[in-house]
Every structure is written in C-alpha cells, then in structure tokens.
Amino acid sequence: PAAPPLRLSACSPAAERCLPSTRAAMPLAAAARTARAAVAAAVARRALGHANTLALRSNALSSSSSSSSSSKDNNKTAHSIPIDLSTRKTVVVGVSGGVDSALTLALLCAANEHRVVAAHLRSWDAAEEGGSGDGDSPEHCEAAAERADARRVARDLGCELAEADLSREYWHEVFAPALDAYAAGLTPNPDVACNVHVKFGAFAEHARRRLGADLVATGHYARLRPRAGSASGSLVSLLAGADTAYDQSYFLAGVGSGALSRALFPLGEMLKADVRAAAAARALHVAQKRTSTGLCFVGRRRFGDFISSYVAGGLEAGEFVDVESGRAVGAHAGVALHTIGQRARLGGANEAYFVAGKDAQRRVLYVARESQSDALLTRGAATGAFSWVAGAAPAAADSVAGMRVTFKARYATPTAGATAWAASSAHAPRVPPSGFWRAPEAALGGVETMSGGAGAGVVVRFDEPAKAITPGQMLVLYDGDECLGGGPIQAVGQSLFEERRAAGATAGAVRRETPFVII
C-alpha cells in the first residue's frame, strides 16, 4: 500500500515546497519514480520513528527514570539516548551541504516536536592560501559551494542557517598536527581528529553556548545505545551504522561517551541508497550530490601539490630500497607523499613494487616486489594513547588471555579477528618491531593528540596476518557491532618476510607459529 504523506517541518509554510506535487496522470516512468519515492518515504518514516523513540521521546534521565520498570528499559532501541526529551528541547543540526546532513535536518524538522536549528560549520579558511579572505577559494576549496548548498537546504526547509567559524580550532587541533605527522613519515587520519576536537568538541560547545543546544545532530552513519550499568544513565555505547558500506563508527572512535550522549545520529539505521531516495522524495536538491571523499582541506588538488605548500621536511628526495637486496632501486620525491601499501613508481622495473616501510630520518622508503608481498604482512601492532569510548579499558584487557575483538586498521577495510591487551598490563605480549619502520618519537605524540586518546595504548595480536598496517592510522576495536574505541598505530610487528629471513627459511616459506611471547 502507498505510504501516507510525510509531515514536513512546521518551521514555516515555505517548507511545503519540499514535497513534489502529485499529478492525476503520469507516464509509466514517472509512476515508477513516484512508487520508489513512496517506498523511500516509508523507510525514512521508520528511521524517524526510531529517531523519535530514541531521540525525541526518550526520558532516560527524567525524574521518573529511577523508578522505571525493567520492561521499559528493555524497550529502548539502539538509537535511544539517555536524555530527557519529554519536554521541548533545542536540537542543533550540523548541515554540511551534503545529502546526509540535509536529510537529518529534514527528519528532525518533520517531527515538529522540538526547536530545530540548522548550523553550518566552517573549518577551513582559504585566505591562509592566498584566497579571497572571506573563507572561499574557488580554485581549490569547495567551502563556498558547500556553504551555498547548506543555505539552500535550510531555506527550502524553512529554517534559518547559523554559521560557526571554527577554522582557528581546526588549524591548531587538526591541521597542524597532521602536517607534523606527514613530515615525520606517518599517515594520520584528520577526520578522526576533526570529530574529536571540532565537531563534537568546539562545535558542540559553540552550539550549546551560542545556540542554546541541548543536543547536536549530524548525518553520521552510526548508532547510539544507553550503556548498561551507567549509574546516571548519562553514558552511551557507540554502534556501527546499519549500512556496513558507509558505517562511520571508525571515524567516531576517538569521541568519548560523554560527548556522544549529547549527540543524535538519525541516519544510523538507514542505508545510503534509502537516504538518497528519501531526500529525493522531499525534493532536496542535494539528493544525488556526490559523496565527498579524501581530505577536506585538500579539495580538488593533487595531494602532493597541496602538501608541498606546507611540509618541507617530508618532501626531501630520498631512495627506494629493496627489502630483499637492501639496494637502492630508485629515487622518490619525499616520504610524506607515500603510505604503506601504495604502489611505488619505479621506472624500468620488471615487476610492481609496493611501499613496505619508511625510515623518515634517513629519507628511505622500503619497497617490496609484488612476489615478496609477505613484506606487507604482520601478525600484530601496538597503538599510542588509546581512547576507550566508555572511558576505561574493559577488565579483559588486563587478563592473561586478553580480550577477543575485531579490528579495523583502515577505514575502507573489513573487520577481522584479533586479541587485544592494554599495553600497561603485565600480561601484554611483546611485539617484535619491524625493522622497516622508524619515525621521530615527537611525531607519534602529535598523532596521539589528534586521536583524542589520553590513556595507555593497546597491543593487538591478529588472528591472521594483516596487510599494510600503517603507523599514524587509527586501529579501532569492536565487540560485535559495538565500537570500543581506537588509538593511532605506533609500532608495527615484524613482517612475515622478516620472520622468514630471520629464521633462515627458504624463499617463499612462511613460518606459521606466532612470534608473540607472553611476558
């Protein structure tokens, strides 16, 4: 049956323009589009139902919560948040100019139960690069187009758009540490730092102080659930988004439970395709807008062209060195331009080479031939300061057996099995370090700051050898679909190639027993 029409924002009568008109007669193709839009509307309504149950009707912190029955607690969905929303609240929606934040704003406005404020976060000032001085640089940065799209979305939904200039905070907390990390040969993840320090740090504080926000909503594909055993009900667990292809819990792993308890993720149960369809059903002009990828401050430029403007030390020429022969096989333009697992461009080589390690101090990039791919495989790694979403490591992380987890060492990789220990535990195993990696200690501290971590690191032993484990990237741990937290990779275990060479094995033979030693 056809889905009933969706309620739109009551912000203003102009919001009614968001629904496409229905005509008495239409071609078959148009009818099919309308049918798909109706299905998308139903999906969106279900998601909003979850969001409203969770975000707009939950009263976990209300005065009656202490006397609530266990049956009520069991009815909380994965979206439920531990905050009293039985009275009217102010929800500030971060509108980036993309389809995800646009639909988030539309869904929350459609509920018509709380004061909804749209806010656009400006994190990059192109004037630093010789731009116009008003934050827009048509040559490189897409900030002007994003802001224009955000304004139009808010206008079409009948909302005013507030703007928050946090470019200074972004520069000091995200960009500058990233530059230091690149110069040292690391591969940082600025998106993690942005979530920790800017979106759920400075922006959330701005929303609270300047806009009266009780909650901040974003278009992240992730879910929240009240944490069991929380004395005040004020802590939440972070869960992976329902759409595994777009799940963004990896980027949120550095954000603590306290900050997340004041956040809303209405799209957590939705699929990206359904988000686009629901946005199209509301005639949002960004419904089919391309999903942004890559580093936001790089824009449409080549990474090398951008980084050369800021990083001098990491762009000094050096040599590619073959891990097997120990001989130089070519020259490179700088360690900052390469990451582990990346193909090395060597003219005249008969076989493809890949970056297997870095020595930033000597400006050496270690490379392995494709047939020597075991130089990219390792059985374990250790992180710098690890940020546990719950605020502390589980007890199992200090046990002899360790805690069973799954992990991601890069965003665009599937999770895999592992065992983890707190690095401070007497039971933590020793990770024989790879000889193909070296970076200044000071650089690792900068990446720790970016991650939001403040405690000890973790040591992780992989169930199966993992490929291209990259210092500086976040190693994020999961228990099922719950994201436990993450920390920057600081040390990589010996590669299988190094194990084989050390054991004096013949070429191609790989030792299967673990090199980890429990101490």
From TrEMBL:
Residues 305-369 form the tRNA-specific 2-thiouridylase MnmA-like central domain. The keyword Metal-binding does not apply. InterPro entries: MnmA-like, MnmA-like_C, MnmA-like_central, MnmA-like_central_sf, Rossmann-like_a/b/a_fold. Catalyzes the 2-thiolation of uridine at the wobble position (U34) of mitochondrial tRNA(Lys), tRNA(Glu) and tRNA(Gln). Required for the formation of 5-taurinomethyl-2-thiouridine (tm5s2U) of mitochondrial tRNA(Lys), tRNA(Glu), and tRNA(Gln) at the wobble position. ATP is required to activate the C2 atom of the wobble base. Its EC number is 2.8.1.14. Signal peptide: none annotated. Keywords: ATP-binding, Disulfide bond, Nucleotide-binding, RNA-binding, Transferase, tRNA processing, tRNA-binding. This is tRNA-5-taurinomethyluridine 2-sulfurtransferase.
